[in-house]
Amino acid sequence: MARGVKSIRKIQELTMQNYITAFIEYLQYEKGLSENTRVAYRRDLNKFHAYLLKNSFSAQPNEISKQQIMAFLSSQMDEGTANSTVARSLSSIKTFYKFLVLENHVQNNPTADLETPKIKRKLPDILTIEEVDKLMQQPRVTLPLGLRDRAMLELMYGTGVRVSELLSLQIEDLNTTAGFLRCLGKGRKERIIPVNQTSIDWVQRYLARARNSLVKNHLERTLFVNANGRPLSRQGFFKILATYVEKAELGKEVTPHTFRHSFATHLLENGADLRAVQEMLGHADISTTQIYTHLTKSRLMEVYQRYHPRA
Questions:
Q1: pLDDT of 9 strictly over 50
Q2: What is the pLDDT of residue 293?
Q3: Overall CATH class of domain 129-307
Q4: What CATH number was assigned to the domain covering residues 2-102?
Q5: Which of 3, 50, 131, 189 gives the lowest tally of CB atoms within 10 Å of its CB?
């Protein structure tokens, strides 16, 4: 008997995994989502699937109930999982079921009336303008790799692009004459971002003095390459940035996204229009951009509290 139950459970597991695989392929080929996003969806769904099997629930999507999904989310909370992670798990399951309904794999959607809990967003860390300047001074621009690094940092801060967008840039994506950058963001959506002259100058120096000495294959068109002349990886960029942050002695955690946050905040602090910043960042929803208005307000309050005589 136990052997029969085990056999049934294995069939269910394979069936659910087939649905998950089809869903991930849909996200890749139909929605154009990045590998990192797809990995996150698969991880969330595999965790849900494992919970169903562990608790002897059916792993057939059309037999999973709303109560079972809620029980899974409750179990995560009982384990001390962060609210933001629980919310993401529910979002992944909801998106999975939308796909199943779309493809006629299930008739009913048990997540239809489940609301993703509102998570209070943590205000992102940013760099001050002085800290940005200090960080930019760290690369040794007399060396090819140092010149490359300065150009990368300047372009990232000057445009607010994501690290994946920066590292996938091709030489022809930067129009130095017109002063704009062509960027493919999430879902392979194209956007055009203006580029300041300082960033352009550093990239031009890198192209004229450093890139040719790094590239081994003349057909390589990726803008920023590693010491072997191949496209620089995300891990490589993280290591480079960490080295300069340590040398600059900033005393705070700085990630590639910190540049993006700083770019947006500094624009808004200097009077930029919220819609324009939304377009440059490539946010589909302006509510995502609005977090930076909260950040600028909190900084204004900090200045007020520090300097007003009656505060």
A1: no
A2: 65
A3: mainly alpha
A4: 1.10.150
A5: 3
| pLDDT for residue 279 | 74
Candidates 162, 211, 261, 266; catalytic one: 162
Catalytic-residue membership of 186: yes
Q: Which two tokens stand for residue 303?
A: 């200045």
Domain ranges of the chain: 2-102, 129-307
In whole angstroms, what is the distance from residue 78 CA to residue 62 CA? 26
Q: Are 135 and 262 in contact (CB under 8 A)?
A: no
Is 292 one of the catalytic residues?
Answer: yes
- Those residues whose C-beta lies under 8 Å from the C-beta of residue 200, and which sit 6 or more positions away, are 174, 176, 179
**Catalytic site includes residue 308:** no
- Tell me the pLDDT of the chain averaged across its residues: 83
* Residue from 211, 260, 261, 266 carrying the catalytic annotation: 260
Tell me which of 47, 205, 209, 257 is the catalytic residue. Answer: 257
Write the Ramachandran bin of 122: left for phi over 0, alpha for psi from -120 to 50, otherwise beta: beta
Amino acid 75: pLDDT: 87
Distance from C-alpha of 233 to C-alpha of 115, rounded to nearest angstrom: 37
In the residue annotation, 294 being an active-site residue is answered as no
Cα 123 from chain centroid?
16
33: which residues sit within 8 A by CB, 6+ positions away? Answer: 27, 186, 187
- Catalytic pick from 38, 98, 283, 299? 283
pTM: 0.60
| Residue at 206: amino acid letter | Y
Annotated active-site residue in 186, 191, 205, 209: 186
Query: Is 120 an annotated catalytic residue?
Result: no
The conformation of residue 206, written as its DSSP 8-state character, comes to H
**26 catalytically annotated:** no
Longest alpha-carbon distance in the chain: 80
The residue annotated as part of the active site, out of 51, 206, 244, 292, is 292
